[in-house]
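Risk register update: the risk of archive-format incompatibility is retired. Evidence:
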Amino acid sequence: IGRGWGVRLLASGEDSSSVSFYESGLFYRHRTKTRWLYWFVEPLVRWDRKYDWSTDPGVRVGLEVLFWDLARQPRR
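Archived output:
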């Protein structure tokens, strides 16, 4: 997604038989003035097995670089 929002759901573990943590978030991504650099913000909630599945809210903020299709001329 270059510009927009979405829902991210994640379950992660060492193998497919056990889950170490769950994570749920709602993200918004937007392009900067360049065609290849994007910023995003994502409020999220994480539940971790090693902390007895207690709720851990947070916010993820960052930059993403998109190298796909840089050789083409921009659409007008």
